Amino acid sequence: MQLHSSSGVRSPLPAWPLELGLGQALHIREERLTTRTDACRLLYVSDIHLRTDRSDRLCAQVLDAARASSPDAVLLGGDLADQRSELSKLSGLIRRLSDLAPVMAIGGNHDRWLGMDLVRAAVIQAGGEWIHESAARVRHGRRVIEISGPEAAPHVDARSNVRVLCAHSPRIWKTSRHAGYDLVLAGHLHGCQLVGWEYRDRLFPGALLYPYCFLSHRRGSTRLVVSRGVSDLLPIRWRCPREVVLCHV
Ligand SMILES: [Fe+2]
Known about the structure:
This protein is α/β, with parallel strands linked by helices. It has a single domain, classed as Purple Acid Phosphatase, chain A, domain 2 (4-Layer Sandwich). It contains 6 helices and 17 strands. A 7-stranded mixed beta sheet has the order 1-3-17-4-5-6-7, with helices on one face. Helix 1 runs parallel beside helix 2 and helix 2 packs parallel to helix 4. It starts with a strand and ends with a strand. The structure holds fe (ii) ion. The site of fe (ii) ion (FE2) has 6 residues, from helix 3.
């Protein structure tokens, strides 16, 4: 399992530089915002992109990664399904994830194209919580972890010990970095799938096109974590593992 420390020092990229297809298990990237031993474990899973002929494999990989992560909550970060026929698979995945931990979900641009109402219904029907326009609270010991969706009304709840923004597009960093969150989660860019080098927290050459092509970045006390996502439209990766992100907060 790859570890990332709270100081931003990263472990090397996984050993597999080239990935063709969806045969590899998902990488579990760890991001630590705290060194406390009773940290809350939030598993951020974005860009699953369920589609015909690959949904079963992707769902199995997500479940394997979730079981290995022992999460306290699972956050689905958008672009969950690409086709209406796969919404039942999404519901099935959420039911099984719910056996491990509470599941919260938001939508991404692909979910909007498919129909945000349909995706939301598939999430809720399976027992997940739809937080795209709201916030949820996770009690962890004596602490409260507040998790907001990208379109939740801005607010500050003094009862919350940790504030997390669960988003899809990392472009939200432009406004959210000053909003008092401890952690901002995003996906969407897939690390641009082909990575030549890293410079100042960003992945290149993708960052030449997308300025928010970060892995992890910090502004003041707010940490941005961008997942490289679970799958892509074209299944090819170079030094850019398909992944989920386990955040310790
Ligand atoms: Fe997206």
